[in-house]
Amino acid sequence: MEEEEAGAGEDAGSQLMCRIERPLYDEAFLRTQLLHRRENTTTFRQRLAEKFRCTSSKAKAVALTFLPFLTWLPSYPVKQYLFSDVVSGLSTAVVQLPQGLAYAMLAAVPPVYGLYSSFYPVVLYAFFGTSRHVSVGTFAVISLMIGGVSVREAPDAMFFVPSANSSSNSSEFDRDACENRRVQVAVVLTTLVGIIQFVFGLLRFGFVAIYLTEPLVRGFTTAAAVHVVVSQLKYLLGVKTKRFSGPLSVLFSVGAVFSRNHSH
Hints:
Blueprint: H1 2-14, H2 27-34, H3 44-51, H4 56-66, H5 69-72, H6 78-106, H7 112-128, H8 140-153, E1 160-162, E2 171-173, H9 175-202, H10 214-231, H11 233-237, H12 249-263
Antiparallel strand pairs: 1-2
Helix pairs in contact: 6-7, 6-8, 8-9
């Protein structure tokens, strides 16, 4: 019996005891200390001078803000991550090749420009991006919007020229001129959008995204899927129809595809 009591005493003594001490706050302390607003004795001129004072620490912080690769590139573990990063990059590139070609068709430009738009944004974002989880590159909705503007500014009717090999009043479609003009429209449009996004980035305008509600994002995603499916119906059914843009373009596209398919 005495041995059991001695063993129980040893077990109790071997247990670790944790003691936490916290200060006790009352309402008077919170009012006088935490809620008390300190008087600011500095003038507006002094605060402005402090804000625009150029120091080495501020210059470094600004450089790291606009060039974020300077924070991770010096400490990048080459031996540990380089091989796996190369393999994942090659795997993504294999998937991105046909995807870029398809998005170029949505944008109404030659397929090779889909490869350009799949390569350069990723390379630039690797140096200037701040998120490790953002998927950068071509996007179906953006391609459709660019294609709508390109078709509207350079419709097929602008590029029918009189046929040189026929004595009649027949005309033929100048595909090269049409593609070149649509590429110019797409380049100008994307350049303007890039300038606007760059200005928004300087102004830290990304906070607007927190006001986009979930129903709005879901509706936008669903509508984008509908537009993509309708735009590919003519290729799926093997019919040739003109491209529609503007309001109710989805209904016009569906009507043209099924009317042409029914006539065949």
